[in-house]
Design a protein that fits this description.
about 325 residues; Rossmann fold; 11 strands; five-stranded parallel β-sheet; about 35% helix; globular; 2 domains; alpha/beta
């Protein structure tokens, strides 16, 4: 076996979590290619464990079916598990084809019954790494890693705004409303953090869909904050996050990016429970979550509003708990 294709089209955090699989394959002396969407291709730039990145939009479903078969990969690892990825694997001609186990039924039962099956132990990274056993590749590397270019800098406007002072990054967005910690609490964390560091700055980051969340935090803050929500490319966001003194996020892709960059990261998790497997992995990461509730988890992926109407999974998480976790990951003593 000489070459392997990894398939994971989306989303941001899920794609970040594939990097340990690539690292172990490369460690075993194999050539590694990754097929993903154009939006997430920058995650693999500069990654020494990935030899090629294929962009889904360049060929589409049937174009890649033909191209993958023509490349004659020895193995295909399907880390997505959709109809498209299964098709590509099936027609690839590879002698070894492996698909990761999503534990979909067990996760749904957890939502319905609030009882976690033993199969939900570990995280998504562990479930991805299980695929290596079928190829006889040991899972030595277990931590996601990203490699932003040291030569590339943020654009002139961003670089000037950042300066040389330490800065806090707030990523208050999330795909679903129930995964967003209240804006006034993000603001309170930022104000407190800045008050203790007179030369520090705060930066808001996120996708264009997070603009309302960022605006709400900015409006609730007493101190100035640089709002770049919806203004950066993914590659530029990586370079900014890579310089952050602290990153505070919700359950979102930014959490996994910051963790994989090795930055001090605090993630606030409400409806998402550990057994789903999406808690971030990294050397300087803390997850702050509320206590047990009979309604948690309420859904697999979040909802537009709290089904119970009280939103306690988020509102029960105090600012002080997030600040305490921030000091721990940043290696600072408690006041």
């Amino acid at each position: 076996m000489k070459s392997v294709l990894l398939i994971r089209l989306s989303s941001l955090g899920d794609v970040v979590l594939t990097t340990p699989v690539a690292a172990n394959l490369k460690r075993a002396g194999l050539r590694v290619a990754v097929l993903t969407r154009r939006a997430f291709a920058p995650l693999f730039e500069g990654n020494p464990t990935v030899d090629e990145v294929f962009v889904f939009e360049d060929r589409g479903v049937w174009g890649w079916a033909r191209a993958i078969r023509a490349r004659r990969f020895d193995a295909v690892i399907d880390l997505h598990g959709t109809g498209r990825s299964r098709l590509w694997s099936m027609v690839s001609g590879a002698t070894r084809r492996v698909r990761y186990d999503k534990r979909a039924a067990a996760r749904r039962r957890l939502v319905w019954t609030k009882k976690a099956a033993p199969t939900l132990a570990g995280g998504v990274v562990d479930r991805y790494l299980e695929t290596l056993a079928a190829l006889g590749v040991p899972a030595v590397e277990r931590t996601p890693r990203l490699y932003p270019s040291r030569e590339d800098r943020p654009s002139a406007d961003f670089a000037e705004a950042l300066g040389d002072s330490p800065f806090l990054v707030l990523a208050p967005g999330a795909q679903h409303a129930t995964k967003r910690w209240p804006a006034e609490r993000f603001a309170a964390v930022a104000d407190r953090w800045l008050s203790e560091r007179p030369n520090a700055r705060a930066v808001l980051l996120g996708a264009a869909t997070d603009i309302p969340a960022g605006a709400a935090v900015r409006a609730a803050m007493d101190r100035p904050v640089v709002d770049w929500v919806g203004r950066t490319s993914l590659a530029e966001m990586l370079r900014i996050l890579n310089r952050a003194a602290l990153v505070v996020t919700n359950d979102s892709g930014a959490t996994h990016v910051a963790a994989a960059l090795g930055r001090p990261t605090v993630a606030v998790f409400g409806p998402t429970v550990r057994e789903f497997g999406f808690f971030p992995v990294g050397p300087r990461v803390a997850v702050v979550e509320g206590g047990p509730l009979p309604c948690r988890p309420c859904a697999l992926h979040g909802k537009p509003r709290c089904p119970e109407g009280h939103f306690r999974c988020m509102t029960d998480i105090p600012v002080e708990h997030v600040l305490a976790a921030a000091r721990v990951v940043a290696g600072e003593p408690r006041p």
